[in-house]
Design brief:
Blueprint (H helix, E strand, L loop, with lengths): L4 E5 L4 H12 L6 E5 L3 H9 L11 E3 L4 E3 H9 L6 H9 L4 H19 L18
Parallel strand pairs: 1-2
Antiparallel strand pairs: 1-3, 3-4
Helix pairs in contact: 3-4
């Protein structure tokens, strides 16, 4: 799995899980792996990549070369989705100054549990998803 692309997400956040379902559905290339931030594998991999303080309100994306956080992670994940629409939207969104996109990200992330709730435990991947969920 060297240089694997990994999405690190809050496993108990309903919005995060819906988002991962969306990414899974629109990534037929199956070039992405997923790990809950609550998992030992996420802690191990992110620590090795220099993320010493994992924040559950932050999505992380490791493209195998660099770790992206917050809005930049979302935009980079979108570049891996099928078709031309999502990758194009991502490239356009990357033009937005990070201070603005992260500010909007932070507002939403602080309220995500109030908006969509949370689970009592992390998601269990289906048999089809199993090899992609670390």
């Amino acid at each position: 799995m060297k240089n694997s692309k990994i999405v690190f997400f809050d496993g108990i956040c309903n919005f995060c899980n819906v988002s991962v379902n969306f990414v899974w559905k629109h990534n037929k290339k199956r070039n992405l792996y997923y790990a809950s931030l609550q998992s030992d594998i996420a802690k191990e991999k992110l620590l090795k990549r220099g993320v010493n303080d994992i924040n559950l309100r932050t999505i992380y994306y490791d493209d195998g070369y660099r770790v992206y956080q917050k809005s930049q992670a979302i935009f980079m994940i979108l570049t891996n989705l099928d078709g031309i629409l999502y990758p194009l939207l991502a490239k356009i969104a990357l033009i937005i100054p990070r201070i603005i996109s992260d500010y909007l990200y932070d507002i939403f992330s602080k309220n995500r549990y109030n908006i969509m709730g949370k689970r009592d435990s992390c998601r269990i991947p289906s048999s089809e998803e199993e090899e992609y969920f670390l």
